[in-house]
Amino acid sequence: MSKYLNELLRSFVDKILSTTTTFRGEPDFMYQLYDHIFTKHELQSTTLFYAIKITNYYTLNTHKNMIDIVGYFLEDNLVPNKLEQATIQNIKNLLHIFLYNNVFYYKDQIYALTKDSPNTMPLSDTLSNIYVFVWQKQILKQLQLNNEFFGRYKDQIFFTWNNGNEEKLGSFLQAIRDKSPNVQFQKLIASSVPFLNAFVQNQNGKLFSRIYRHPLIQGYSLPYEVGHAKLAHSDWLRSVLIRAVCYCSSV
Fold first, then answer.
1. How many CB atoms lie within 10 A of CB 97?
2. Which domain of life is it from (predicted)?
3. pLDDT above 70: residue 164
4. pLDDT value at position 70?
5. Which of 18, 166, 174, 248 has its CA 20 to 30 A from that of 242?
6. How confident is the model at residue 216 (pLDDT cuts 50, 70, 90)?
């Protein structure tokens, strides 16, 4: 049932999500940020970068509210009230069966999930994507008025703030937090922030970027195992170099 629902919803959800900036990965984030700054909107010396990490991405809400949110999402975006051969009510009914019957076994006890579903299932990612898409509209509406850059990769959101008033932005996001307390997130706002293993910095109106190395994580090294061909090692090294080039503002 999970596989069927995910195959039914995923392509449709991805199509709707493409109406806002959705990053396919780290190089895509860098490409879209550079494209926005150099072709659409110049970086100001006062521009701040904002990075959000949703900490409860797979446990956003109760089963009932998650089903309701999916229903609202489909009603807003489905013209014929049907996705392939399944009506919106059919989909909600199947989601009800799937979510309310997800159980797991731990230390001789059987437990039921009261929020969302296991993060090992692709459907869980699709449901969380729908929920955050509906939630992020509160932020996106304000940013679009100011022609700010905005994008999301799963549980991480990045946007620019050209107003220069950090206090005003903090108040705005606190209002969103108060309005939707189910979505818990950590925020970082500064002229330089890490995002998706990239480090971006506003150096007096010029964009600087490089690979971000977390201080608590061991540095990246090439894997080595006996039996791998030289070609495999060459491919690993090549992919690391390409990744560095994609991130580096001086190349």
1. 11
2. Eukaryota
3. no
4. 96
5. 18
6. confident
Exposed/middle/buried for residue 80 (C-beta within 10 Å: 0-12, 13-18, 19+): exposed
Percent of the chain past pLDDT 90, that is, above it, reads 44
β 103-106/150-153 pair status: unpaired
